[in-house]
Amino acid sequence: MTTEQELGAAPMSIMDSLVRNDRGGPKWLWRSGSLVPWADARIHVNAVGHASVASVFEGIKAYVSHDGNRLLAFRLDEHLRRLYESARLVRIDIPYGVETLRDAVIEVLRANEYREDVYLRPWAFPAGIVQEQMVPAGVSCELVVDSWTFQSGLGTERGCRAAVSSWTRINEASMPPRVKAFSNYHNGRLAMIEARENGHDWPILLNERGKVSEGPGACIAIVRDGVVSTPSTTSGILESLTRETSITLLRELGHTVVERDVDRTELYLADEVFFMGTGWEILPVTWVDGLKVGEGEAGPVTRALDAAYHSVVRGRSAEHADWLTEIPF
Ligand SMILES: Cc1ncc(COP(=O)(O)O)c(C=O)c1O
Questions:
Q1: Ligand 1 centroid – CA 240 distance (Å)
Q2: Pfam family example for this protein (predicted)?
Q3: Domain 22-149 part of CATH 3.30.470.10
Q4: CATH architecture under which domain 4-12+155-313 falls
Q5: Contact 145, 139 (CB under 8 A)
Q6: Residue 188, SS3?
Q7: CB within 10 Å: which end of the chain, N or C, has fewer?
Q8: Intervals of CATH 3.20.10.10 along the chain
Q9: pLDDT beneath 70, residues of the chain
């Protein structure tokens, strides 16, 4: 049995790890066509504001294989495809083909001589000092691939306390969550501040129709009477690759998975609730709004999914090798 204190401990997240004051950084990142020493990858302060508003990005993980002799980038091509889709939606024209970006990611992993699990962040943003506030379509863009190591929570006993946020999830009519844009994270950040101030770990955002959408950095699913339900991709969520992966793995494990509207009150009646995302991996929600979920620890479906996901990302499973890009040590 996990103690309440352990359950309450917020896991290291993408959001947390973005605050990296204490790290020296890797040796290299990839910027607009070549490797650049990490410390020299500077831009002018005037370039930050509007370029940041317009930028889109991806979050990708490369896991050390179970036999310890290579890195396995998980669903690399699908992440890169989503980067192009985000860029298309905000009219950023990425001047590199997918082969170049795939090579760039591999180059960054090799150049930094990583022998640990690595998080990779490719992002595209308007180049130079953008003076036109609305960042017109067609301006040239820069592309950077940065990276850092992380500690995986897969296969560990963990859980988090979530709370339904008073903030509404951004929506298709104003800021489409389908676009993986840094700007969208202001919404999640407000919800996170509220959740933390009220003593919870993570918020769960409802959409403009009052239905469950997602967390600030992950999608969500509930298990009730053996059926897994997760908000559909038109519920105000990012089209998450971990969500898609989880649906596939859960069905292979014999579970029924339904993509549908999920009500807030279903969170309170669920036997299990879990987040799914590249950064958060499979994160059990053990309390929602002060109500214990099931036994207050990860339930059997969540544990089975965690184990299956862990096995796939480390290349232990014979299945889904096509989801992995190998980078031998
Ligand atoms: C808002 C949001 N939803 C969902 C996800 C999960 O997406 P993926 O599984 O593709 O990482 C993320 C991941 O960063 C996210 O930021």
A1: 5
A2: Aminotran_4
A3: yes
A4: Alpha-Beta Barrel (3.20)
A5: no
A6: helix
A7: N
A8: 4-12+155-313
A9: 1-24
State both tokens at 153: 């929570």
Which two structure tokens, joined as six digits, stand for 20?
A: 């990296």
If residue 35 lies in a helix (H) or strand (E), which one and from where to where? strand 34-37
Residues 281-327 pLDDT 10s:
999 999 999 999 999 999 999 999 999 999 999 999 999 999 999 99
**Closest C-alpha to 122, from 89, 100, 153:** 100
Q: Whose CA is nearest to atom 1 of ligand 1?
A: 217
If you measure from the C-alpha of residue 131 to the centroid of ligand 1, how many angstroms do you get, rounded to a whole number? 31
Where along the chain do the CATH 3.30.470.10 domains lie? 22-149
DSSP 3-state of 276: strand
**Which atom of ligand 1 is least distant from the CA of 278?**
11
Cβ of 242 less than 6 Å from ligand 1: yes
Q: Is 26 a pocket residue for ligand 1 (Cβ < 6 Å)?
A: no
pLDDT tens-place string over residues 183-229: 999 999 999 999 999 999 999 999 999 999 999 999 999 999 999 99
120, 123, 238, best to mutate for ligand 1 pocket (most atoms within 8 Å of CB): 238
